[in-house]
Structures are given as C-alpha cells and as structure tokens.
Amino acid sequence: MQRSSIVPRRAGLIIFTVLLVLVSGVRFWHLDADPPWNLSDSGGYFADEGFWTHNARNMILWGEPVQDGWNNMYVSPLLHLATVGCFKLFGVTLYSARLVPVVLSLISLVLLYSLLYREGEWSAVLLLLLLGLNYIFVVYSRIAIVEVPATFLLVLASIFLMRSEKRSVFVSGIILACAYLTKTTLVFIIPAAFATLISHGFLNRDPVTKRKNRVVTEIIMLAIGLAIPLILWTVIIYRPYGTFLAGYNEYYRHMLIPSTITGFIKALLSQPFHIFFNRTPVLLVVSHIYALLVLYDLIDRCRRINRIEHFAWFWYVGGLIFLALFKYRPLRYYVPIMPAMVILSSIFFNRLVHEGPQTFTCLLRGRRWLITLIWLLIPLAQNLGLLVDRYVFHYGLLHKLFHRWPAIGIWYPGTIMVVLLCLIMIASFIRLRKENQCQQQRAHAYSPTTVLASVLLIMFVTVNGWSLISWLYEPEYTLLETNLELAKFPARGAFTGQWAGELCLQTPHRVVPVFKDFVNDQTPFDRYHIRYALLWQEYQHKELFIRDFPEIEQRMRFIKEYWIKRTTVYFFALPKGPD
Predict the structure, then answer these.
(1) Sign of dihedral through CA atoms 31, 37, 39, 40?
(2) Which end of the chain is more exposed for a tag (fewer CB within 10 A), N or C?
C-alpha cells in the first residue's frame, strides 16, 4: 500500500479527534434505549442480553453465578468475567451491561486506526469513519451480546499478527483461540490466520527461499499459541462441564447446520450476504470489488501486498463461505466480518486516490473482464431479485421458492442503492476498458477515480448518518420501562420465557431460562419455583412454549401485554401446581 501524505500531521490529529468524539458520542448517547426494532428479522439482538449476562447478574445479586442449568459463563467465559467486573463497578443495569461492548468497540477502532496509520494516514482516517460511524456496527456495539467482544479479540489478534515476530505471532494465536472460545462461529478465523502466514510468505515479490524458514516458524508459533487456551479451556471448563456444553453445541448444531444437501443449497440461495448488508450499500459494494482485486494481485504478484491485506481478505472470504453454510444466520452473525470489510474498503479508497484508473488494471484485461462482470452481477442479481419480488410479485414467486425472505431488516432504499452502485461500477469498468484508461497515469488531482471515491464516501456518510440520526433523535425505551415496571412487581418466584432475561435484567427478580430439549426442561416450574412467564408472540413462541410444557397450560393466568419490537409479549402468572 502506498503511504499517504494528503493529510498533514496536524490536520490528521484534528480529524482523528473529531471522528473519535463522534464515534464515541453515537455509542454513549441514550445507551439504555432500545435497539432499532426493524434492524433484523431475528429478535435475538433485542432479547439475548438477558441470556449473556445471566451468570454475571446472578453473581452480583445472589453471590453465586450458578442458579440453574443455563450457564453462559462456560460458553463465553471472558465475556462473563468482563460483565461481572462492569456490574461490580456500576450496578446491574441495562446501561452497565452495554458498557462492555461499547468500550471494546472503541478500543477496536483505536487499534485498527493505529494499524493502518503505519501504512497511510488517509486509510486510517477512512477506517475510523467507515467502521466508527457504520450504522450496523454502532447498533451492535450498544448491545450486550457476544459479537462485538468477539470482534474486539479478532482485532487485537490482528495487531499482533501484523508484527511478523515469533513472539507476536504466538500471542496472536492465544488471542485468536480466545475469540473462538467467545463465539464458536468464528472458527473460520483460525484457517484464515494460517492462510495469511502462508500467502504473505510465498505469494509476494520477495524471494521465497529467503522466507521459507521464517514462515514455517511463524506457523508453528501460531499453532502453539492457539493450543494453549484450548487446552486450558478443556481442562478447566470442558471436562467438568462437558455435559452442558455438549447439549449447547448439539442444540445450535441442529439449528444452524442443514442436515441434507438440499438444505445446504437452500441456505446458499436464501437470505444471501448481499441482502444482509444492504443497510451499508457503499461498504458492501466496495469491499466486494476489492476482494476480487486483491485475489488477482495475489495471483499476479504485481505488487507488495501488506500482511493486513492478506489477513483481511482471508478473514472476509472465510467468514462469508463459512456462514453461507448455515441455515440460520441473522445479521449479528456477520458483525465480526465488518472490520475486514472496512480494512479492504479503506485501502481500496486509498488506492483510488493515489493510483487512479490503474487500480483496476488487473480486473479489466483478458478473460478477467468477464469474471469481473460476473462478480459484480452477484450482488446486483440478489438485490434486484428481492426488489422484483417485493414490488412486482409482492413476495409471491420467491416466497414459494425459498420459503420466505427476511421481511424485517431489509432496508429497501439500501437495496436500490446496491443495484444502482453495481450498475454504475459496471458502466465505469466498460468505459475504462473501452478507452484503455487503466494504462494511463493520473494527470491531475481530480481524476475520475478520485471523483468516484468522493461520491462513494459522500453516499456512505449520508446513508449511515441519516440512519443514526433518525434512530438516536427519538429513542424508545420499552425495554428499560418494562424493566422498571416489573421491578415494582412483588414477585414470589422466578421468571421464565424468551423475554424474561432481558425484561428482568434490571430487577431484583430471579430468572430461569427454560427451553425444551436444551436447558432446564426437566420438571422446571416447581423445581426452580418458577411462577411467571414472559412469552413472545412472534413466530408463535407462546404456542410453542405451551406445546412443549403442556402441564402449565391450565395454570397460566394472564396478567398483561407488553409491546416490544413491534410485537406482543404476554405476561403470565404460573401458580404452583397440585402436589
């Protein structure tokens, strides 16, 4: 990457300070407000805070983390410890639970800024803008679930992996293992790290013979670093609590991974990646293009590609391929891929400004021109197909073919922008190829690619700024208000249900998660003194709960309805059954 000099040191410091204030402000502003109700079809980003703070809350309120069979501290031990520390300092509230991801997201931004600053101030500033004010990343940075803490560990590991020293690579392996243990769907990052060492050592302009021993040493050190946390985790957590973890893994394996070839094909076709990220259309299209460009640069060895580009590329591509195999993959599963997308996009913008049309040389020559067109047609077809089904067939044709599209969470203006951006990029490539501009030197500061970069950045700021302002300007507090109302309720027993952990987080009431064939499903109600249930109507969760535990149906007494995430949550009393 060419080192940038277009941002003077003093101006760069001012820009960094202003951006840091902005990205901090949008994270702390109304932190105990609700997430945007229409961000995702899944309700997990609304309700899961209660589950991922369960043991920490038990520890602070009752002095013992284990109160029942659900123990998130064995699933994500580092997140549990961080939440315990935050609760001890600031009390058990929604606000303090969310401080953990907020602080870790800000540290991640500073670390990534420092990483790219070594290569160019312009790229570093762009990264702070593209990730720090990214609507999706901001939203998930304000929710107390595992995605952002796990992402922080990936970022920290990348800092050490970039140093190309044996000790640093060893430390990186330790942190990568911790990221995997925080969220196991990040397992793709392990082969990505090994692939980075191999590709950076061999697929570059340096003589292979001078790097062979060094690459082998780094691979060994990375493997040793990965092994240490996994061994410790096996001894300290898995051996004594393996039964619980086996049940947890089996539950999610059944939910996530298709059992047939047809299921895998359906997973690949339905809810594709380019629809998940239509709320950030610029970032989606730019990272998509640059991923192909880096691949060709690796093949051609036409330039020295920095290790951060190698790692971001394998991080991005590995994550897409791995998650594409899941039959259930809500938007939050893609959050750990976002730093890789932003790294690629920031470097891409930097190259557009400094190299001009020559940036696209390897994309437009020979047979690669056809591959480039096909590559751009993928997000175009996915989003255009959704628009046609939405506005022409009204979810008729594709609904029957794929069972359903995720109706909530798709931002149709973003989908339209993805289609238009892809068409613009295709038209631009046709023009560049026709006029052979890829071979010309940049004649002046305002080259077509500089204009393109400026337009894309303006679009990014407009789209994400509008989304953030409209969400934060009039915040809703249904979660907090329900917590405060339930805190006054003179409960004489524990609460259960999909929403119990979230809606009772800031109350003195005990919560017991109950899920059939998963956790606490053996005579739980009298065993754990469960006397109340908070059941979500969406996807018939209330009916499924009654079906799974028919013995409570005659005991249920309706108390009240709550309106959360634009759907109904029913509050029931469950008086003690006959002895």
Answers:
(1) positive
(2) C
In the three-class reduction of DSSP (H, G, I as helix; E, B as strand; rest coil), residue 564 is classed as strand
Average pLDDT of every residue of the chain: 86
Whether residue 158 contacts residue 127, with contact meaning beta carbons closer than 8 Å, is answered with: no
Neighbours of 411 (CB within 10 A): 18
pTM, rounded to two decimals: 0.91
On whether the CB atoms of residues 1 and 350 are closer than 8 A, the answer is yes
Please name every residue paired with 535 in a beta bridge, in sequence order, or none if there are none. Answer: 570
pLDDT digits (tens, 9 = 90+) for 136-153: 999 999 999 999 999 999
Residue 377: alpha-carbon gap to chain centroid: 25
| DSSP codes joined into one string, 520-550 | S-SSHHHHTTEEEEEEE-GGGHHHHHHHH-G
Dihedral sign, Cα of residue 223, residue 224, residue 229, residue 233: positive
The pLDDT tens digits for 494-545 are: 999 989 999 999 999 999 999 888 888 888 898 999 999 999 887 677 888 8
Q: Give Cβ neighbours of residue 495 (< 8 Å, ≥ 6 apart).
A: 503, 504, 509, 510, 511, 512, 530, 531, 532, 533, 534
Task: Please answer whether residues 340 and 312 qualify as being in contact, where contact means their C-beta atoms are separated by less than 8 angstroms.
Answer: yes
